[in-house]
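Entry 12.
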Amino acid sequence: MQGDDCSISCPLGLYGTNCTSSCYCHNEISCSHIDGSCICREGWQGVECTIPCSSGTWGFNCNQTCQCTNEAACDPINGTCTCSPGWRGEYCDVPCPEGSYGLDCRERCDCVHADGCDPMTGTCRCLAGWTEGTVAPSHQANISSCSETTWFPPTD
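Predicted 3D structure (tokens):
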């Protein structure tokens, strides 16, 4: 504290008797004007705010638990989820709807002779008697296709 009657707190970045000590924090919002202890920004922890939140945690002093699922990344500052390919939703717990795949389910499946496609990769799930192939009818789109297969009986 400063002032004739000790009513003024230390300026930002200083602490202690007569505000003569400098704070040593990193990634901080502020430090205590009394003892210099650090108040870390969201996403940081530790005595000097030098340790990033460990995986699965976020917020002030990393004391919040991430709710993300299906191998989604969790933002250490605000806890928002970045979904892996094939998933969407606030917590990445909703699979891509049939007919779409990839990041944020933005890609469209155009499978022929198939029972949909893999929501992560877009690979066609070919029906019995068909095998995967790729046809590119134009420079704008690749349509995955399941080509007819031929079965030859074993010979003795």
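Annotation: Residues 134-143, 149-153 have pLDDT under 50 and may be disordered. The radius of gyration is 29 Å.
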